[in-house]
Amino acid sequence: MSLVRIHNFSVSLDGFGTGEGQSLESPFGHAGQRLHPWMFATRFGREMLGQEGGGRGADDAFAAQFMPGIGAEIMGANKFGPPGWQDDADWKGWWGPNPPFHTPTYVLTHRPRPSIEMEGGTTFHFLDATPEEALAVAREGAGGLDVRIGGGVSVVRDFLAAGLVDHAHFAVAPIVLGRGERLWDGLEGLESSYDVESVTTASGTTHVTFTRS
Ligand SMILES: NC(=O)c1ccc[n+]([C@@H]2O[C@H](COP(=O)([O-])OP(=O)(O)OC[C@H]3O[C@@H](n4cnc5c(N)ncnc54)[C@H](OP(=O)(O)O)[C@@H]3O)[C@@H](O)[C@H]2O)c1
């Protein structure tokens, strides 16, 4: 059976996965870029931005796990676009013509629309479905490979709460956001189903992995 994986999901010390006030100008609301500097300083992160360089140390070793073995992604409507994107028939996500997913990508939304084929192997499909139903569809699309839960915060929380995640990597950024979308609410005792490891890297980021026991 293919695995369900989460990678590079950044949270603040106080447990927020995004800030308050998401908009077209600020995909992470008042958090700005403060959750992900660790990732965009790595070779993997620079490549995602179409740039050269970047560190090849421990942060890069974690970040680079994002792609290998993944055959599909599931994401939430608020990761796909800013509030109101469903009213824009031309909205195709934040990522330009060649998004960094390169697989079928399933967007959970209560307002589905026809699929959109992008360059580079990404096709966005829109689903109004439970996490279990969406996972069954994504597994089909993944062709035997693993399925990544790409965020945002509430979708990650929902898949964890439903017990559907086999491996999760969280990057705890050394910042206090104070407000935004909370990741851990309703997940009391999550660690009891997983082997948990953590390591803090030179960037001050604590990487925490949950691997199903
Ligand atoms: N920290 C990180 O590493 C990271 C990673 C990725 C994204 N993010 C950030 O996370 C934020 C988005 O997170 P979020 O919690 O606000 O939203 P989200 O998880 O992206 O999406 C939630 C929305 O998806 C739709 N949805 C979810 N489950 C559904 C289901 N079962 N069936 C149908 N529709 C469903 C609903 O939208 P509708 O009812 O409107 O259709 C729901 O309001 C953004 O700011 C993004 O930039 C952070």
UniProtKB/TrEMBL annotation:
Alphabetical list of PANTHER family matching this protein: BIFUNCTIONAL DEAMINASE-REDUCTASE DOMAIN PROTEIN (PTHR38011:SF12), DIHYDROFOLATE REDUCTASE FAMILY PROTEIN (AFU_ORTHOLOGUE AFUA_8G06820) (PTHR38011)
Name of the protein described by the UniProt record: Dihydrofolate reductase family protein
InterPro entries: DHFR-like_dom_sf (IPR024072), RibDG_C (IPR002734), Riboflavin_Biosynth_HTPR (IPR050765)
Source organism superkingdom: Bacteria
Transmembrane feature ranges: none
Positions of the Bacterial bifunctional deaminase-reductase C-terminal domain: 7-190
Species name: Nocardioides panacisoli
Pfam family, one: RibD_C
